[in-house]
Amino acid sequence: MNPDIVKKVIEAALLASGKPLNIDKLMHLFAAGDFQPEKNDIRKALAEIGEDCHDRGIELKEIASGFRLQVREDMAPWVSRLWEEKPQRYTRALLETLALIAYRQPATRGEIENVRGVAVSSNIIKTLTEREWIKVVGHRDVPGKPSMYGTTKQFLDYFNLKSLDELPSLAELRDFETINAELDLQLPGLEMPEQESPDKSESNEGNEIADNSSESESSSVNVDEVSAEKVD
Fold first, then answer.
1. What is the CATH number of domain 3-71?
2. CB atoms within 10 A of CB 157
3. How far apart, in whole angstroms, are the C-alpha atoms of residue 17 and residue 1?
4. In terms of CATH architecture, what is 92-225?
5. C-alpha 184: how far from chain center
């Protein structure tokens, strides 16, 4: 099989799949008995596709689950107009909780509350779990056996990351507003977060994903307390 055909097959599959494809899945596209490319052939084809996209509105991105073709982030202001509905937005409390889990996982709810200084709403844990951004990875060996939470591949995929090593280091972050800005990424071209009004409550209804607890917006995180250790 001509290498150009391999490249075309992979490009077509990435466009048609609607989800990331890893190298093993791409290998399965070629039936037994036909020309069976090696993994190096697949990688070479992916590299060429990435080069072809260099000056285009789309890009080939490698994330935790594999490779995907996606709209470039700087194209999002225009492409987002294809969708009339307003995107979901995330409260400061939810983003703080998610960031703490990402940076010091595995973390229990009590450990998150100790850092934030306020109770973690059950709705926040429920929302993060339902979006498959976090999962229970074990139980702390202390009285009560509290659940320990860690991030998932879906978390990495959503935030356009290949691994947790690509998270910004805490030494680069001056305050938690910077963490929010770094973590509040959207899939390019799919969602455009709106700026939240300063007087808007975290518990407002509508298009915002909000917890209904009585947590104050003034809650803050001391990033010095957050461990920089990351796990794959």
1. 1.10.10.10
2. 21
3. 22
4. Orthogonal Bundle (1.10)
5. 9
Query: What is the three-class DSSP state of 19?
Result: coil
Judged by average pLDDT, the poorest of 82-96, 176-190, 199-213 is 199-213
How do beta strands 147-151 and 107-108 pair? antiparallel
pLDDT digits (tens, 9 = 90+) for 118-169: 999 999 999 999 999 999 999 999 999 999 999 999 999 999 999 999 888 7
Would 3-71 and 92-225 be classified into the same CATH topology? Answer: yes
Least confident of 60-69, 109-118, 176-185: 176-185
Task: pLDDT band for 191, please (50, 70, 90 cuts).
Answer: very low
**Residue keyed to tokens 């947590």:** 215
The residue ranges of every structural domain in the chain are: 3-71, 92-225
Structure-token pair, residue 173: 């972050």
From residue 161, alpha-carbon distances to 44, 71, 73, 167, 184 in Å are: 21, 15, 14, 8, 13
Give the C-alpha separation, 11 to 46, whole Å.
Answer: 8
Q: In the predicted model, is pLDDT for residue 217 greater than 80?
A: no
CB 178 within 8 A of CB 221: no
